[in-house]
User: Which sequence fits this backbone?
């Protein structure tokens, strides 16, 4: 494949890909996301291949192992196009029926469709299943149509048109302006405006600048970035190249996990294909813009995902955070201006360029624009990755999309942001999903993990669990973080085991204040946030544990 | 912005504890304070080494353009109109607790005891876990930055972090050096112990069976 040198060559190629595809040809999309693979979708893929082979239908049917569809709870999931018939919890023995009855016979197999647990109603089409119906899938919507290893699949859904538009029709300043106007805020947790970060790096002195994808995703209960980067790697890469152009960077890094081989393979494949097609490397699409990307694997502890630690890691140093009195967008990797955004942030960029900032900012809440991916886990009926507009209430996500709490239990709390986040109680469930609204409640949205907790959850144990995690997963460099976590963990373990003493809660509060104020990096500064939020809303549980009385109700009697 | 201003003038006037202090561009708050004989306690700082910012005992309160924050003096760069308070209720509270944390590991360190007296820190506040090492990293960084030998380093992370000598290097370099011992704020007990341990297990030493 010769490298493309202009926008028209790209469009020609795209048209070629599209015209070679018959929209009426049956196509089987099998979810090969992490969740479905865990449920055995690897065997489903081989079973389909064998069955199609056996029947000699190879030329009549397409089989596609796609990125994550999001509905992990019901995996393995299979969608038959063009009718979009969706089957859930598919097993290898269902395959012959699916091929003969649905793929060829165009009939829906009732036993394999989604059945509403309350009404018993069956839904044949994927987009009509309640889990999907209430979402707005700007970023995830293409996943069922894309084999992550095929650049043609990405081109077929309009891929790289934003890159072509940016490089060949827009100045870097114009691109930057568009991102700023869209008010794209960083999805990694901080919610910092991406445009401002890019601008700082663009204006910082020095010719060499870096752009980085943070795909470390260490937050407990977070798996949405993997769904995007592994399922649709070109969308993130396209965003990164556009960002590099706006910032004036010619070298990018993707910081990926060492323990996710599928992710690494899909990224490597995407980079190689983009390079081959002239969408990466020297003189991209004949624009004169050069940009290269290197993949760097993490060294496996949570703190590696902290921006300055991540940058030290890319330099080849241990992942210890350094102070950011000068921003990393001015002094980052090798003291050069470096823009770090997370996977989801980058994936939003092509969308903004294609459809414009005005369109983009028409979705969302007043200060949080666009959609947000959330990972639903814990005591919830529908575990999976959902995408909703900012401003959607937490209640709608938990009940409307998540299907509520299983086993007839009551909801107690929803925990956001993993070990550096916080929990909100049931009474605050009508809070909108929004950076600032959640932050005000002491439950920072984090990267988007939503851990749903039912009435049987001990909030003391939850806070203890996160501190235990951090005591192993922090770097251990600065005293307030290392020792503060050590002491808080000891006290919480005592309280949990019924050995709490009077004054323990006050001591926890004092330590959390010092750790929050004096630690070197964001990990230490927010390490006590789960503790603080559970003390804020569930203080009676701590008190009850200390009094060695089983429940607050008993205590009152 | 900060940079542009600093380029115009290399001399920056800052205020520390109400006193005007002249500082040069690129200096840290700690350096500016020391040049004016204003004391800020430190544990992990050493003039020959790169600022590290781990012990946080040098935390001070700064005010820039109306914003107040708590920063590590050993790392925070001076800038125009910076107002520094080396002690305040918040600062003292932080230092007191840092000392209490560290005294659980090294209760007999004279340096910690002196500071504990100054800040009213209770050496028995937290349960003792005497490791004799406060992980200031002076030995590690001195060996890396000044001696350029990297004979001693940190292993593990988080609460399990500790110092270790690398046997292969230690057998060659450490026996006649031990310059890092002098820097130790806790009487180098832990350093001596782990050095002995690494020498004993070095492949260059006689078998230990």
Assistant:
């Amino acid at each position: 494949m010769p490298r493309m040198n202009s926008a028209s060559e790209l469009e020609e190629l795209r048209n070629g890909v599209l015209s070679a595809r018959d929209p009426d040809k049956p196509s089987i999309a099998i979810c090969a996301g992490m969740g479905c693979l865990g449920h055995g979708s690897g065997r489903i893929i081989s079973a389909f291949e064998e069955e199609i082979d056996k029947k000699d239908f190879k030329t009549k049917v397409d089989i596609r192992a796609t990125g994550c569809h999001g509905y992990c709870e019901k995996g393995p999931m299979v969608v038959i196009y063009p009718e979009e018939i969706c089957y859930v919890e598919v097993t290898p023995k269902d395959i012959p029926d699916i091929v003969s009855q649905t793929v060829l016979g165009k009939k829906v197999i009732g036993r394999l469709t989604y059945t509403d647990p309350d009404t018993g109603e069956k839904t044949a089409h994927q987009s009509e299943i309640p889990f999907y119906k209430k979402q707005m899938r700007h970023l995830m919507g293409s996943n069922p149509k894309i084999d992550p290893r095929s650049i043609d699949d990405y081109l077929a859904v309009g891929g790289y048109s934003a890159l072509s538009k940016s490089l060949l029709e827009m100045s870097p300043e114009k691109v930057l302006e568009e991102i700023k106007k869209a008010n794209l805020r960083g999805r990694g947790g901080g919610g910092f405006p991406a445009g401002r970060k890019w601008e700082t790096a663009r204006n910082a002195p020095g010719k060499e600048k870096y752009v980085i994808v943070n795909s470390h995703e260490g937050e407990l209960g977070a798996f949405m970035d993997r769904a995007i980067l592994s399922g649709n790697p070109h969308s993130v890469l396209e965003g990164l190249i556009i960002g590099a152009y706006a910032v004036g960077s010619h070298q990018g890094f993707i910081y990926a996990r060492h323990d996710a081989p599928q992710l690494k393979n899909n990224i490597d494949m995407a980079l190689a294909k983009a390079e081959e097609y002239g969408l990466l490397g020297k003189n991209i699409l004949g624009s004169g813009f050069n940009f290269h990307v290197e993949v760097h694997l993490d060294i496996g502890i949570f703190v590696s995902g902290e921006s300055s630690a991540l940058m030290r890691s890319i330099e080849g140093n241990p992942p210890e955070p350094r102070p950011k009195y000068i921003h990393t967008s001015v002094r980052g990797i090798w003291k050069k201006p470096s823009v770090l955004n997370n996977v989801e942030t980058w994936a939003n960029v092509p969308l903004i360029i294609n459809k414009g900032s005005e369109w983009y900012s028409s979705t969302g809440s007043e200060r949080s624009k666009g959609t947000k991916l959330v990972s639903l886990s814990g005591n919830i009926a529908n575990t999976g990755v959902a995408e909703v507009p900012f401003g959607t209430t937490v209640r709608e996500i938990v009940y409307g999309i998540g299907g509520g709490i299983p086993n007839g239990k009551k909801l107690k709390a929803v925990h956001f942001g993993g070990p550096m986040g916080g929990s909100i109680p049931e009474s605050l469930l009508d809070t909108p999903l929004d950076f600032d609204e959640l932050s005000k409640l002491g439950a920072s949205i984090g990267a988007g993990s939503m851990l749903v907790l039912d009435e049987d959850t001990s909030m003391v144990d939850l806070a203890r669990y996160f501190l235990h995690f951090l005591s192993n997963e922090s770097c251990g460099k600065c005293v307030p973080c290392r020792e503060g976590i050590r002491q808080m963990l000891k006290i919480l373990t005592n309280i949990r085991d019924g050995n709490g003493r009077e004054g323990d809660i006050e001591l926890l509060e004092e330590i959390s204040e010092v750790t929050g104020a004096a630690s070197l990096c964001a990990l230490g500064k927010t390490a006590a946030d789960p503790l603080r939020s559970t003390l804020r809303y569930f203080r009676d549980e701590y008190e009850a544990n200390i009094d060695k009385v089983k429940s607050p109700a008993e205590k009152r009697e | 912005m900060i940079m542009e201003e600093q380029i115009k003038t290399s001399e920056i006037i800052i205020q520390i504890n109400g006193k005007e202090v002249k500082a040069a561009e690129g200096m840290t708050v700690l350096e500016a304070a020391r040049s004016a004989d204003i004391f800020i306690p430190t544990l992990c700082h050493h003039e020959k080494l790169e600022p590290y910012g781990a012990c946080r005992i040098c935390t001070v309160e700064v005010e820039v353009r109306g914003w107040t924050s708590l920063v590590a003096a050993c790392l925070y760069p001076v800038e125009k109109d910076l107002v520094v308070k080396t002690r305040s209720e918040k600062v003292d509270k932080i230092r007191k607790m840092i000392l209490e944390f560290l005294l659980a590991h090294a209760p007999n360190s004279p340096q910690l005891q002196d500071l504990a007296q100054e800040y009213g820190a209770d050496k028995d506040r937290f349960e003792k876990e005497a490791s004799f090492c406060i992980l200031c990293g002076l030995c590690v960084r001195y060996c890396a930055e000044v001696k350029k030998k990297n004979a001693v380093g940190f292993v593990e992370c988080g609460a399990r972090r500790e110092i270790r000598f690398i046997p292969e290097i230690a057998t060659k370099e450490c026996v006649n050096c031990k310059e890092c011992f002098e820097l130790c704020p806790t009487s180098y007990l832990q350093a001596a112990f782990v050095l002995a341990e690494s020498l004993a297990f070095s492949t260059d030493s006689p078998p230990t069976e």
Observations:
- The radius of gyration of chain B is 20 Å.
- Confidence is low (pLDDT under 50) at residues 1-8 of chain B.
